[in-house]
Amino acid sequence: MTDLKLSDPLLRKIIYSVGIMGVIAFGFYTFSLFKGGLGLLLDVLTPFIAAFLLAYILAPVVIMLQRHLRLGRFMGTLALYMIIFIAVFLLLAFLIPTVLTEFIRLFNAMKTGIPPLLNKLSQSSYLNVDAELITVLQDKIREIHVDYEKIISTILPSLRKVASGGLQAVELATRGLFTGVGSVVSFFSFIIFVGIINFYFIVDWENISPVIRKMVPPERRDRAFDILEKVDTAVGGFLRGQLTVSAIVGSLFAVGLFGMGFIGFPALRNYCILIGTAAAIGGFIPYLGAVMGVTPAIIIILMTTGVAWSVKLISLGSVLVLFSAIQAIEGFVLQPKIVGKGAGLHPLAVMFALLFGAQFGIGGMIIAVPAASIIRVLFREFYWLPIERREAALITQEPAED
């Protein structure tokens, strides 16, 4: 009978695998125990986390304004706030009403356009679709009715939830008077609170680094600040870069579809702002913005009635060409030049981080992607790079041994 020894490779692999699974299981169990407390803590810290990330993104902009306009730190921050105020005013006055109008128009167009398309599918001899099923679907689509007032009344309480944590007093003070108005007041109070904290963060931004330097022991400062610099490149590069890329991708879609509307498909011109906004929002996840832009454009072309299929096919080809061009620009120009290789996160990593952060509410989603960037840097510095150096050393030693 053969005795099993700890030195046996198979036994060591089994013990190693069981140990890893045990650590993972213990991690999930610990996470379930502390999830409630972490969620509560993130709710309280959400205004400060949001303000810090905004300061982290906007601090270089203030430095640029200081250099070009020869302003002090305080006046440079005020100048930035004036620019943001103007941008928000234009957003509320133009973009949001336009997007909502185009969304309602698109919904009504799809409601009237889908039944004729289903009817054509039922008449196709190649698909062999059940005509009774098509009739049922057409009746269900015609019965769909959207109560926009009900949607707004549902959104308002969710705005109140966003302003949780440090602003519960505002919520309680306004709840008894006007529920809807209280939600709006609570939400905008949260925004104002974040803006005030962000203002002080930006003004004192240059004083943060010396404080951190003093907290690190002298013998470890070089290594610590080398890692912090890489973390800054990863987090700052991704946040600033991806926001810039998403805005560019959304603008390219809006301008491209607006131009295509004059060439031969006017319906695309009517929804260019909506599609561009969807592409910009989806663009925060790398390479998703182009998909978010091309999908509704294709649906609009297919759902539009009273247009010959030859025109639809030409329009579909033009949209796909626009999609390919924007995807190529994003992949070969925008991502490498603006975001940078050292800051890039895989799209799946971004989606996983956002889904994981959503378990902790708004605060978790805000901190999810920066945390994923930091984990990526730490994993590379303390685990992956030592493995690469070890493998490189083994490769250089092999010829010498031969």
Textual characterization of the structure:
This protein has 14 helices and no strands. With 402 residues, it is an all-alpha fold. Helix 2 crosses helix 11 (288-303) and helix 8 (221-263) runs parallel beside helix 11 (288-303).
User: Could you spell the SSE succession in H and E letters?
Assistant: HHHHHHHHHHHHHH
Ends distance: 40 Å
The largest sheet is: none
Low-pLDDT runs of 5+ residues are: 158-181
Beta-strand segment tally: 0
Q: What structural class do you assign from the helix and strand content?
A: mainly alpha
Oligomer: single chain
The percentage helix is over 70%
Structural domain count: 2
Radius of gyration: 27 Å
Mean pLDDT over the full residue set: 75
Shape assignment: globular
Q: How many helices?
A: 14
Strand content: under 5%
Keywords summarizing the entry:
402 residues; mainly alpha; 84% helix; 0% strand
In short:
The chain has 402 residues and is an all-alpha fold.
Write the layout of secondary structure elements.
Elements: H1 9-69, H2 73-123, H3 131-143, H4 148-162, H5 168-175, H6 179-203, H7 208-215, H8 221-263, H9 266-270, H10 272-282, H11 288-303, H12 309-339, H13 347-358, H14 362-401
Helix pairs in contact: 1-2, 1-6, 1-14, 2-3, 2-11, 4-6, 5-6, 8-10, 8-11, 8-12, 8-14, 10-11, 11-12, 13-14
Subcellular location: Cell membrane
InterPro entries: AI-2E-like
Family: Belongs to the autoinducer-2 exporter (AI-2E) (TC 2.A.86) family.
